[in-house]
Amino acid sequence: MIEDALREAFAAKAGTKPPGSLGDIADVAIRNAGRIRRRRRAGVTGFAAFIVMAVAAVATFHAVSPGGPADTVAQPDLGTHTAEPQATPNTQTVPPATGKEVGVFDGQQGQESQTVRLKLPDNGNVAAAYKAKDGYLVVNTESDGDKQLVLQDEHDNQKVLVDKASNIAVAKDGKKVAWAQEGRMTVAARTTTPGATTNVTKSAPAEQGLTEQESIDVPQTAVPVTFVGSDLVIGREEGAGFDVWYSGRAYKQSWDATVVRIFGTHPDTHSVYAEVKPVDSDAPMCLALLTLGQPFKVTQRRCGLPMAAKAGGGRVSPDGQWLAYPVEGLKQVAVLDLTKIFTDAAAKTWTKTWTLKVTTKTVWMNATTFVVDSGGKFRAIIATAAEGSTAEPLVESEDVVLIEPLYSG
Question: Which of 245, 296, 341, 383 has its CA 20 to 30 A from that of 188?
Fold first, then answer.
């Protein structure tokens, strides 16, 4: 059983846990960011999952719907600067630091738990973390609310790839990174430079970094949300809508305020699943498949669905078949079959709900297993199971950060 496998995998977990809850720490991080920058951030849903048992309390990143007060008036037309590729000035090597040992479980491959060191920032926490081929990509939230992207290799060497950003988005293949920083949005490619050969038999390790590709002016509250193919969906404060920055084109802002939040990308890499505002006699919540555009183009739409929690936590499965999200009130989880939800049949036919108290800490462990935080434990909801079937308990969720795998990189 999955429960037995998981318990065995985490049997090596040792040490005592510090006081305080993940929710408390997340609240502090949000308040700090609000005081310093008065902005909220948007991000993307993840795909498949690793589970990391952390000694230090950390929080999971689920910013899919930008929110918060605006303090900057948008410019009517923002210029685009496409430069010759150059190494980003944010890249820097940081000195060794005392790391926190955490156990890692790979839910996809079924491997046994490992011990790794994630070097957490002073007075900060982990906002998001990804497992790449060359190590861990960790998005840290610093004490002032700023974010940094750190690459930590298998030898625990750390390199800061992006620093002092308001938000950071990593493409699901790990090949591109986008960040917002003081009214600029930048897209960069992850690059590897071969190490210098020291003698005929030994070469220095390859150098990992970022090469900036494009940069544009954006409103101060704008943040990267998700890559859709080579293009980037960006968002602003709650109610201000979303927009598209097309790769290789001049950017002229055209915010679509009918889009409430982005849940994730469609497998065609040309469209996204999103909550949209109801119109006329529509009963909320309305889910739509949107083709990229200015404004977005609704290709399919279904209303009358369980209302998604405003706090977030909704994610599209790795294969694009399922959408799962905490329902408003955080006492239910809804799972929708995206291959059938837009058909003529009643919405309830392709919607399942599980009744349990949850937080917005969620992740897809694989194509059919949605992991939620409930009652101090992570629980597995199987999308293909009967509605209301038991959400199998996995491991304790306190002081645990969820790490998402990247498809490549």
Answer: 296
